[in-house]
Design brief:
429 residues; alpha/beta; nine-stranded mixed sheet; five-stranded mixed sheet; globular
C-alpha cells in the first residue's frame, strides 16, 4: 500500500513538473514571438520611412487614368502606344532578417518605374516572401503592404498576379485576404487588382483593356492566378507546382467572347500575365535545345537565356489547355516569372512566351544580391494596331537612377559564354 502511495505521489510530481516545463516553454515562445513582432515592426517602419521620405511620385507629362466599364473591368483610352512594365519576383521578406535586402528591392523597383514612366505596371507574382528563416516573419501582409505603399507613393497604376510565395500555407494571410487588402481603394487607389468571379479558381483572374477614342479595344491584358503547389506538396519542397485550372480557361474563353461582342464583332488582340510558366515554355525550350539551340519550325528565339542550374524550367505536371486557348483566341504574348535566373523569350507556334527579369535579393541564397544579370524589368509596348513590342532592360544601366546607391555587381564576369545561355554562379548554392 505504501509503495502504491509513493508511486502515485511520484507520478503527481512528474505531472506537475511536466506542466511547469510546458508553461515555461510557452512563456519562452511567447516572449520570443513578442520580441520578433516588435523587431519586425521596427524593421518595416524603417522601410516605410524610406518609401515616404526618399521616393517621389513619377513625373508624368500626361498620365493615362483608367475608367470602369459596365462589366466592372478597368480600361484605358489612348490613340497612341500603351506602355506596360512587367516586374516579377520582388521577394520582400517583411521581417527583421530581410530589412536591408527589402530596401534594396524597393529601391530597384522604384528606380526602373521612375525612369520608364509606364502607363501600367504588371507584377507577375511573388511580391511577398514570408519564409521565416530568411525573412524573420510569417506575416505576408506586411510585405504586400510595403510594396503597395511604394506604388501608391510613386502614383503609378498597377496590376498584380499572385505567385506561389505570396501566400504560403504557413503565412498569416490567405489569397482572399491579401487580395482584399490590395483592393482597399481608400489606401491603394492605383492598384487595379480584381479578385475575379467567385466560381473561378484563384484570387486574381481579371482583364484590363486598352481602347482607342472610337471605343475599339486595341489590346486586352489578361491576369491569371497560377496558384501554388499540388499533390500534397504543401510547402513546395518537392517543386510540384500548379497551373491555370480548367475553369479559368473557360472564364478566359467566355471573356474573349464577351469582349468580341463589345468590340463590334472583332476579336481583340491580347497579352496574358501570370506567375508559373506553362508547360509549353518547357516544350519550346526542349525543342530549341534539341535542335542545337537553333530555331525550328515551331520555335523562334527572341532573346535571353535559361540560366537555372541544369537549364531547369519549373512548370506544372498538369495542363488544362490554356496555351491552346491562347492560340485560338487572339493572345499574342504570355509573360511570367518564377524561375529567377531564366529570362528567355521564345515564339512557340505563334505565341510569344517570355520570362520576365526578376528583382529577388533574398530567396536564392547569399550571392543573389550581387548577381545582377537577371535583375531588371520587361518593357512591353502595345501599339494602336494591336501589335506589340517587348524588350528586357537590366537594372544596372545608367538610365535607372536609384535613390540609394546600387550594389556592386560584375556583369562582365557573369556574361561568360556557354552553349545556350550563360554560366550560372548560383547553381551550386
Amino acid at each position: 500500500m505504501a509503495t502504491k502511495q509513493k508511486m502515485e505521489t511520484k507520478g503527481k510530481k512528474k505531472a506537475r513538473l511536466a506542466v511547469k516545463i510546458l508553461i515555461i516553454i510557452a512563456l519562452v515562445i511567447g516572449i520570443l514571438a513578442g520580441i520578433m513582432a516588435i523587431t519586425n515592426v521596427v524593421s518595416n517602419s524603417s522601410n516605410s520611412k524610406f518609401i515616404m521620405n526618399s521616393l517621389k511620385p513619377v513625373a508624368y507629362e500626361h498620365q493615362l487614368k483608367p475608367e470602369v466599364d459596365k462589366n466592372g473591368n478597368y480600361y484605358f483610352v489612348t490613340d497612341g502606344d500603351f506602355k506596360v512594365l512587367q516586374i516579377t519576383d520582388v521577394h520582400i521578406g517583411g521581417g527583421w532578417l530581410s530589412t536591408g535586402k527589402d530596401t534594396m528591392a524597393l529601391n530597384a523597383v522604384a528606380a526602373m518605374i521612375t525612369a520608364e514612366k509606364p502607363d501600367l505596371v504588371v507584377v507577375t507574382g511573388d511580391v511577398a516572401y514570408p519564409v521565416p528563416y530568411q525573412a524573420g516573419t510569417f506575416n505576408n501582409k506586411e510585405s504586400a503592404k510595403l510594396f503597395a505603399t511604394m506604388m501608391e507613393k510613386l502614383g503609378v497604376y498597377w496590376c498584380m498576379c499572385f505567385g506561389n510565395h505570396d501566400t504560403e500555407i504557413y503565412s498569416y494571410f490567405n489569397r482572399d485576404e491579401i487580395a482584399a487588402m490590395y483592393q482597399d481603394h481608400e489606401k491603394f487607389k492605383h492598384c487595379l487588382l480584381q479578385k475575379g468571379p467567385d466560381d473561378v479558381d484563384g484570387a486574381c483572374n481579371y482583364v484590363v483593356n486598352v481602347k482607342n477614342s472610337a471605343g475599339d479595344i486595341t489590346q486586352s491584358l489578361f491576369m491569371f492566378d497560377s496558384h501554388s503547389y499540388t499533390d500534397g506538396d504543401y510547402f513546395g519542397i518537392k517543386w510540384k507546382y500548379d497551373c491555370i485550372h480548367e475553369n479559368q480557361v473557360a472564364w478566359y474563353k467566355d471573356t474573349v467572347k464577351q469582349l468580341t461582342r463589345e468590340n463590334k464583332g472583332a476579336q481583340p488582340k491580347s497579352l496574358a500575365f501570370f506567375h508559373i510558366p506553362p508547360q509549353e515554355m518547357r516544350d519550346a525550350f526542349e525543342e530549341y535545345k534539341k535542335a542545337g539551340y537553333k530555331d525550328t519550325e515551331n520555335v523562334k528565339y527572341l532573346y535571353g537565356i535559361i540560366g537555372e542550374g541544369g537549364e531547369l524550367i519549373c512548370c506544372s505536371n498538369y495542363n488544362y489547355g490554356i496555351f491552346d486557348a491562347f492560340k485560338e483566341n487572339g493572345t499574342q504574348g504570355v509573360f511570367f516569372g518564377h524561375d529567377h535566373l531564366n529570362n528567355m523569350s521564345l515564339n512557340y507556334k505563334g505565341v510569344q512566351l517570355t520570362y520576365g527579369y526578376s528583382i529577388d535579393y533574398l530567396a536564392y541564397g547569399s550571392s543573389i544580391s550581387k548577381f545582377g544579370r537577371q535583375r531588371g524589368c520587361t518593357v512591353i509596348t502595345a501599339h494602336p494596331d494591336g501589335t506589340f513590342d517587348q524588350a528586357q532592360e537590366n537594372y544596372y544601366q545608367d538610365k535607372y537612377v536609384s535613390v540609394n546607391e546600387k550594389e556592386e555587381v560584375d556583369l562582365e564576369h557573369e556574361m561568360g559564354e556557354v552553349t545556350g545561355g550563360i554560366s550560372n554562379p548560383l547553381a551550386d548554392e
